Amino acid sequence: MASGGLQLLGFVLAFLGWIGIIISTAMPQWKMASYAGDNIVPAQALYEGLWMSCAMQSTGQIQCKVYDSLLKLESSLQATRALMVAAILLGLVGVFVAVTGMKCMKCMEDDQVKKMRMAVFGGVIFIIAGLSALVATSWYGNRVARAFYDPFTPVNTRFEFGSALFIGWAAASLAILGGAFLCCSCPRRETSYPPTRGYPKNAPSTGKDYV
């Protein structure tokens, strides 16, 4: 029962992490314009994401523009896109594999060993997906921080971390943690000992001697 509860907890955490990775990938707030220093706060907020850039007016109206050409983008942005999409696809595979190995599901009930291996394999896939998202978000965040502290970067073109980065970090951590719980949910095999042999009992004496 304990391993079943740990397995269910791991799947829920990993699934929530996968959903968070999807949300983070789709959000345009990967970095936002910084108004620190001597900047005058303008009447709009600028955001940039993996797929589009947006400007939010003071009235609340948001205007977004999708990036025109894939070939014009920086190689680092293309790599970040690829890692996040790979994390989403791996998470999708991990969901199907882990569900097949869940104890509460009726799939593969005849072979419990293979069923447990499927759950562990799903956990490994979730860990890889979480690591992929973690590398992508950390790499992107490092580029934003380096550009912010670069003295040659104009003050009016500096950006700070957006909310999508924080969601991506949290989602990647949940996917890794949930995958680890799935991998640890496999019960240990108990050491089996050969059954003890009983000693034969002496037949009760009848009190008669035979010659």
Automatic annotation (TrEMBL):
InterPro entries: Claudin (IPR006187), Claudin1 (IPR003548), Claudin_CS (IPR017974), PMP22/EMP/MP20/Claudin (IPR004031). This is Claudin. It comes from Anseranas semipalmata. The gene is Cldn1. It is found in: Cell junction, Tight junction; Cell membrane. It is a multi-pass membrane protein. GO terms for cellular component: bicellular tight junction; plasma membrane. Belongs to the claudin family. GO terms for molecular function: structural molecule activity. Claudins function as major constituents of the tight junction complexes that regulate the permeability of epithelia. The keyword DNA-binding does not apply. It holds the Pfam family PMP22_Claudin. The chain crosses the membrane at residues 7-27, 79-99, 119-141, 161-184. Keywords: Cell junction, Cell membrane, Membrane, Tight junction, Transmembrane, Transmembrane helix. The keyword Transmembrane applies. Coiled coil: none annotated.
